[in-house]
Amino acid sequence: MSAEEKKARIAELEAAMQGADFWADKARAQAAIKELQTLKAEAEGGSAYDKGGAVMTIFAGAGGDDAEDFARMLLNMYQAYAEGRGWGMRTLSASENDHGGYRSVTVELDGKNIYGTLKNESGVHRLVRLSPFNAKALRQTSFAMVEVIPQFEKADKAALKEEEISVEFTRSGGPGGQNVNRRETAVRIVHLPTKLAVHVDSERSQAQNREKGLALLSAKLYKREEEERKSKEAGLYVSKTTEAAWGNQIRSYVLHPYKLVKDHRTGVEAHDAEKVLEGDLDAFLEAEKAL
Questions:
Q1: Are residues 171 and 217 in the same domain?
Q2: 239 in a structural domain
Q3: Which of 4, 135, 231, 284 is 20 to 30 A from 27 (CA-CA)?
Q4: Helix %, strand %, coil % for the chain, to 5?
């Protein structure tokens, strides 16, 4: 929908709201209000979900133990930033190794303006340092993927058709694969057409984990559609999959042989790398608003 079409639709909806019979069909009226809010947010240059919470997943990429430790470092960095802003954070699922690193970890962030603030952190992050897992302390390059999606309270049932999803229930797992729950309450849901998948084990029951998983999957589909829309508007092609490896990074964190954090999209640099990893992200996030 073009900018002019959005403007015309906003005017049409606002006119309809003035009608005496607007609330005769409550469900239709609420849908119209939601559409109006979405269109106005887009017209102002922001997604309707920018003002709400977010869900962040960090995946370890190339680099073995170092990459899984880098995933931990990124989680701590975002947690420190969230705490400084007064945001709440809780873990939805985590695959932890035997020394505190993460193969993957998903957290939910509660508060205002979180998705709008963090959505452009999505992408590959690169770490260069002397490896603490190498007996010779050699320099190691490792990668992690960050994914940020909006927080959906409920699944978008119009977008998720039963025949297009696969649901599996498994036992919740702890570090090293240790089972922390004998009941199969964890859920993994796959959207078959796109191969997008979610895993949730934070809730008490299968049903609750399934509902949370479907909401997450809806948000993933929304994020994917937004990226495709933006790429089409810009005349660009965006790959359906991005590998967490060399050449794809959006930001590099160099701890050896010098200290530097550089965002490769905005050009923002910081020489106090430790301070950035402790949650000092404001300069990077501010520059990202123009992306």
A1: yes
A2: no
A3: 4
A4: 40, 25, 35
